[in-house]
Design goal:
The structure is a single chain. Helix 3 runs parallel beside helix 4 (about 130-145), helix 3 crosses helix 11 and helix 4 (about 130-145) runs parallel beside helix 5. The chain has two domains: about 35-370, tm_1862 like domain (pyruvate-formate lyase- activating enzyme), CATH 3.80.30.20; about 375-465, Arc Repressor Mutant, subunit A (Orthogonal Bundle), CATH 1.10.10. Helix content is about 40%, strand content about 20%. The protein contains 18 helices and 20 strands. With about 475 residues, the chain is of the alpha/beta class. The structure holds S-adenosylmethionine and iron/sulfur cluster. S-adenosylmethionine binds near residues 74 and 123.
Length: about 475
């Protein structure tokens, strides 16, 4: 049993665990974006360039295709075996639409604004051929202002990653790789339909290092059927032997009412909340003992890695990729379902169906489906929630200075609840009003603390969950 487990008051943990609450990859969460239709939303791209001093840019690109389905997967993906009739044509028409999208979105945000980061996510970008990747990369180069310092990252599926592909990515300027590992246990892999032996991951890591990539991230998931504290210990220990620079240690997000393919998981074999707590703490203790720093809700990074440096310098942010560097950049989304997150302006999301996305672009229309323009209250609460996730403490003084409000007046109801959470040991409140999230209980239930400040949730959501279907908090 992990040492921290003995410090957790299990009665309190049980009171708050297992509730349906957001992970706050945005504030407001997309469930609160009803304000704008696609056309109104897309116009916000232009607003971002008219800011007094426009922010530099970060680009997110969505490649939805995957060769086979992993049953747990909650991402926007299209399962399309390459051998399937018509697969090559569907991919080509998607990529043609994506190129048009990149060009148009660059025009509307301004092609001269420095592009600091590019992230290729999915789905599986490694589904594409090297030629297809290079073609899209050249479109980005042609449309945006890249520099040698632009950080370029890709999500790799180790099952489709070859040394040749890695060599091409390095040549094009990619330096950061993130790979889906999930779990090394064979029985778990069989159940989730993702067979990926340890040796395969080890070989891809070696090939990444040989190619020269400076940062490697592993995605792991705990809390799935057939996982036990022992299998998790083994997976994390094996992970540590491969020395990734970052580890995203995700709690399994289970929303079968929204994600039909998750109904194929044997949920009778799911670990209960207390076992998941034990799994989380096993992972956290092993990673910390191996020198990783715990960041935000579910990330770990080596102290000299960008994420840990960003946490120390205050440039960490929470967004749709989890915890990332680059706070203060306008995030521009291209591709199906992608999201633009414009600082102090709002959010824009593209349609979620690939065929519809292609049709809209081919017809000369915007692929945006909905959006949210931030109100003053949204901005204040976004800053509060960001402080909680990125620094795990909330400093009212900073919020007062930035927004010219009296924190005590503005958040009277929320501060009342903080007293309740303090009595339960989730937070501690200092004499200057700083609210710190405790370790381990508060960190494990960080979503509960953040939910108190979310004006779009039911007011009692922090202790009873929200009626909308978010995944469970622990
Ligand atoms: C787009 S995938 C990563 C790249 C590639 N498709 C792969 O799987 O190797 C993004 C990550 O989201 C995480 N993920 C997907 N579904 C999840 C779920 N239901 N709960 C928690 N994490 C999930 C997985 O860890 C996965 O690696
Ligand atoms: S986890 Fe990755 S490879 Fe598996 S279905 Fe999801 S996006 Fe595709």
């Amino acid at each position: 049993m992990p040492t921290a487990m003995t410090e957790v008051n299990l009665d309190v943990f049980r009171k708050y665990a297992g509730l349906s609450l957001p992970r706050h990859v945005s504030y407001p969460m997309p469930t609160g974006w009803q304000d704008l239709d696609g056309q109104e939303a897309a116009a916000m791209h232009g607003d971002s360039r008219r800011a007094e001093s426009p922010h530099d840019l970060s680009l997110y690109l969505h490649i939805p295709f995957c060769e086979a389905l992993c049953k747990f997967c909650a991402c926007n993906r299209v399962i399309q075996p390459k051998a399937r009739t018509g697969a090559a044509d569907t991919t080509e028409s998607y990529l043609a639409a994506l190129q048009t999208d990149i060009g148009r979105v660059a025009e509307s945000v301004g092609t001269d604004r420095p592009l600091r980061q590019i992230h290729w996510g999915g789905g599986s970008p490694t589904y594409l051929t090297e030629e297809q990747i290079e073609k899209i990369h050249r479109s980005i180069e042609g449309a945006f202002a890249l520099s040698p310092e632009t950080e370029i990252a890709m999500e790799l599926d180790p099952r489709g990653t070859t040394p040749s592909l890695l060599g091409t990515l390095y040549r094009l300027g990619f330096r950061r790789m993130s790979m889906g590992v999930q779990d090394f246990d064979r029985a778990v892999q069989e159940h989730i339909h993702r067979i990926q032996p340890f040796e395969m991951v080890r070989d891809v890591v070696t090939a990444c290092r040989d190619a020269g990539f400076c940062s490697i991230n592993f995605d792991l998931i705990y809390g799935m059927p057939y996982q036990t504290p022992d299998t998790i210990r083994d997976t994390v220990e094996r992970t540590i032997t491969l020395s990734p620079d970052r580890v995203a240690y995700y709690h399994y997000a289970q929303i079968p009412e929204k994600i039909a393919t998750q109904r194929g998981m044997d949920h009778t074999k799911m670990p209960d909340s207390e076992t998941k707590l034990e799994m989380f703490l096993i992972g956290a203790e092993l990673l910390e003992a191996a020198g990783y720093e715990f960041i935000g809700l579910d990330h770990f990074a080596r102290p000299d890695e960008g994420l840990a440096l960003a946490a120390r310098s205050g440039t960490l942010q929470r967004n749709f990729q989890g915890m990332t560097t680059g706070a203060g950049l306008d995030l521009i989304g291209a591709g199906v379902s992608s999201i633009s997150n414009l600082v102090d302006v709002g959010f824009i999301q593209n349609v979620k169906e690939t065929q519809r996305y292609v049709e809209l672009i081919e017809a000369g229309d915007s692929p945006a489906e909905r959006g949210k323009r931030l109100t003053f209250d949204d901005q204040v609460r976004q800053a509060v929630i960001s402080q909680l996730y990125c620094g795990t403490s909330l400093q009212p003084r900073l919020i007062e200075q930035r927004f010219d409000i009296d924190f005590g007046d503005y958040f009277a109801r929320e501060l009342g609840i903080m007293q309740e959470l303090e009595a339960d040991g989730l937070v501690s409140v200092d004499s200057d009003g700083t609210i710190s999230v405790t370790w381990p209980l508060g960190r494990v239930l960080l979503r509960t603390v953040a939910a108190v400040f979310d004006a779009y949730l039911d007011p009692e959501a922090y202790r009873v969950g929200d009626r909308r279907s978010f995944s469970t908090n622990a």
